[in-house]
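re: that chain from earlier
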Amino acid sequence: MNTRTISIDLPSDIFLALNETESELTQRIKISLAIRLYKLQKLTIGKAAQISGLSRLQFETILSENEIPISNLTIDDVISDIEKLK
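^ sequence. v structure.
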């Protein structure tokens, strides 16, 4: 997988305030970004999982724990699909 690195400047005392290491905060930021982009329908669940650094199952579990649907299908979509299958 080809990757690019971005950097974010944070106050040095943020790690102390959050009681987290740099790697823990980095992971939390990646997961938060992935969730946000998924909720905005900017990324598929697979791509969002990739950004988070988690497996798809792990990412879906986090979505479920935060009461975020893992599917963007509406009732109308499901009914339409059912009609097409008849």
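The chain has one domain: 14-85.
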